[in-house]
Amino acid sequence: MSKWQIPATGGNMEAANGIYYQNMTTLEVQARLKTNDVLLLPVGSTENHGPSAPYGEDTFLDTRLCEQVAKATGCTVAQPIWYGSHPYHHLGQKGTIMIPEETLVDYLCYVFAGFWNTGFRKIIVVNGHGQDYVIPAAIHKFGKKFQVPGIILYLHFWNAAKEQLDTMDKGGPYQTPFIHADEVEQSWSLALFPELCKQADATSAAAAPLLPPGHINNSAERGVGPIKWYNAFGSCGMECVCQPEGVIGDASLADAEKARVGVERTLDYMEKLVHDILEKYPAGTLPPIEMMTQRKREDIEAVIKGPNKPGGRHIYTLTY
């Protein structure tokens, strides 16, 4: 029997149960950092997912995964970033809140800095929304700007499920390929936050490709095309024109049981990632200074101590 809760029976965003950073006091955070200084940072979106799923679907997928991993490992979860960047074909879709790429990059860079300054210097960014081309830029901007030792990893959680996102003819559980708010994504939603889904209202809408098949890969990079979906402009029609329903595929085919193995595999991987980081670098331990920066050692050692310790400084003394 799996230790993971599928279907899940509710979230924890307001619970005082040692999961969310924003729900903790300074003393609780200080105690936590002594044993586990890994932070899970969910980055989601607010976008149209059709009549059967909430606008916050991408964010709830992130947070419900993170919550279960935090319970299993003792790491901490940040309250999610609700508004994200979107590819051009989302432009104008009613209900979708689009943040410019450069704005989100700066925003994330300084979120990383704030958590690093607090003591969470091992951060796993968890995302399942179509903003793969933005989050890595934020990570590298932070690295170049502050040049401090630490770990920031980006997990596009769908990638951990592998063939469990595929159609049945390719070894997966689904009748249709993964695109958006469809059989696949709705099945995961039913597995992780069924109380927010309205499966009786599920609908379908056809994809609108503008190029012959075989060139553009699909949403979770499970197709055959060598060109990633976000490395293209003019590859598909705009959703507000072609799929005003907010769905690309058939959400009526969704079932939580179809998602079970993929969700469990993703949770298993996330748990392993947290444990592997802490095994290599236990709480309070960082990668070697000399391998991660060429700033003056005394400056780095001062910001590692932090702003409230003798001889310590805050991270923004390095640059702002």
Gist of the model:
The chain has 320 residues and is α/β, with parallel strands linked by helices.
Number of DSSP E strands = 6
Mean pLDDT: 96
Helix/strand/pairing category: alpha/beta
Main β-sheet: number of strands, strand sense, barrel status? 4 strands, parallel
| Widest β-sheet, arrangement of strands | 2-1-3-4
Residue windows where pLDDT falls under 50 for at least 5 positions = none
Write down the overall geometry: globular
> What is the succession of H and E elements?
HEHEHEHEHEHEHHH
Give the N-terminus to C-terminus distance in angstroms.
50 Å
Continuous helix count: 9
Report the β-strand fraction as a percent range. Answer: 5-15%
What are its keywords?
four-stranded parallel β-sheet, two-stranded antiparallel ribbon, 9 helices, alpha/beta, 320 residues
How would the blueprint of this fold be written?
Elements lengths: L25 H8 L4 E5 L14 H17 L2 E2 L23 H18 L3 E6 L7 H12 L4 E6 L26 H10 L11 E2 L33 H4 L6 E2 L5 H25 L8 H4 L4 H9 L15
Parallel strand pairs: 1-2, 1-3, 3-4
Antiparallel strand pairs: 5-6
3D architecture notes:
Helix 2 (57-73) packs across helix 7, helix 3 packs across helix 4 (135-146) and helix 5 (183-192) crosses helix 7. A four-stranded parallel beta sheet has the order 2-1-3-4, with helices on both faces. It has helices spanning 26-33, 57-73, 101-118, 135-146, 183-192, 239-242, 256-280, 289-292, 297-305, and strands spanning 38-42, 76-77, 122-127, 151-156, 204-205, 249-250. The relative contact order is 0.17. It starts with 25 loop residues before the first helix and ends in a 15-residue tail after the last helix. The chain is globular and about 60 Å long. The chain contains nine helices and six strands; from the N terminus they run αβαβαβαβαβαβααα. The chain is of the alpha/beta class. The longest helix has 25 residues, at 256-280.
